[in-house]
Amino acid sequence: MKRIAINVFIIFHLAVILLWAMPVNSRLVTGARPLIAPYMVWSGLAQGWNLFAPNPLGINLRMDVQITYQDGQTSLWNFARPQDAGYLKRYTLERQHKFSLDALQNDKLAYLRPDVARYIARLNNTKPNDPPVKISFISYRSIIAPPNSKRPEPWTSKVLYTYAVKPGDLK
Predict the structure, then answer these.
(1) CA-based, 20 to 30 A from 88: which of 17, 35, 128, 169?
(2) Within-domain flag for 52
């Protein structure tokens, strides 16, 4: 029975990964994707083909967090940016980077934002008499300029989410 369960587990995962990652738009594949999408996102197995031709992603994205403390001072906390690290460290940072872009900026997954805000507040609760009181996620976007462009497009920003930290959140 154990062997059958393991085989079913392996076959299931191979099937959903193939259906999800195949760059084919057959009726079977496009019909199955909405059914398996919640599982793929939840498990962290979701992949996209928007990096490749014929329609590569046309924007740069990044996200920072502005932390406001009780005394009114603010500081900026950055999500991982793999491009700022060495080659080996990039692989460990990529998961956090992908999470900040794919999950936190996706309105369908907005329910994750309060938990992440509380986590960041706890990480930055380092001053005994000056705790964080507000966490703001700031999303930055820049259109990728065409290859023959002389200068890069400017970055635009918007506050994506703001969380008012409660004293119980810092424990």
Answers:
(1) 17
(2) no
